[in-house]
Amino acid sequence: MIRLRVPSALLYRDLAVRAVQAACKLVGDATSSAALTVHRDFDDHVVSAFSEAFNNAAIHSYRDRAPGEIEVEIEPAADCITLRLLDRGNTYVIADVPDPDLDALPESGMGLYIIKSFMDEVRYDPGDAVAGRPNVLTMSKRLSDGGTK
Amino acid sequence: MNFERIDRGDETVLKISGALDAMSAPELRPTIDALIADARGSVKVDLSSLRLIDSSGVGVIVSLYKRMRAAGAVMTLEGLRDQPLAIFKLLRLDRVFVLE
User: Fold this and answer.
1) What class does CATH assign to A2-145?
2) Which of A13, A96, A123, B67 is the most exposed place for a label (fewest CB within 10 A)?
3) Could you give the domains of chain B?
4) Domain coordinates of chain A in residue numbers?
5) H or E, element range at A36
6) Global ipTM
7) Contact A124, B75 (CB under 8 A)
8) Which of B53, B81, B83, B94 to probe the A interface (max A CBs under 10 A)?
């Protein structure tokens, strides 16, 4: 597993995104041209979802409270990748966040929709400050879905 | 992110390169305000050198589109590819822009 711990600021997003981008290259076999095409979509989708998740953690988790840290765990496997973002800030209920009305050409509120659309599995476990347990957003994506979703 | 505004007669080309995201998108707002204030008739946004975009970056592009449309002007996109193209397709922005 690859672990990264950064301050909860957008300034560190590019660093974290590059780590995820590099980890995507460790998934599957990207040697044939067909595999490369699928891989490019897979990488684009994973990077897009992770970028939004990092934004949410950096912007919303520590809103109205002291800045904290974001921990990133990256688990590349033979045919999938799993990402976890851990923070100790504000919690939310993922089911309470509505999908954007795309017909209205929204200018915000699209982050979670991008995450859910581009990843195969998304789970948010709110933490418990008293018990010292962080909020954990877990996202995973299989390579076989990379070019089809 | 870097961007460049080039005025050619009534048309403006706005070339954006690098990453247009939550960190950099606010830097573009004054330029968008200026395009509207200058009553440009046509703006072509060149995204051929855009490496990464997130929902905040899309929000800025959509905002420009809406304000141009409200002013009776035209905005088009060109050069979208890779990750930015995937995001624009997911958000079904092919309904308002020619993406490829």
Assistant:
1) alpha beta
2) A96
3) 2-95 (3.30.750.24)
4) 2-145
5) helix A33-56
6) 0.91
7) no
8) B83
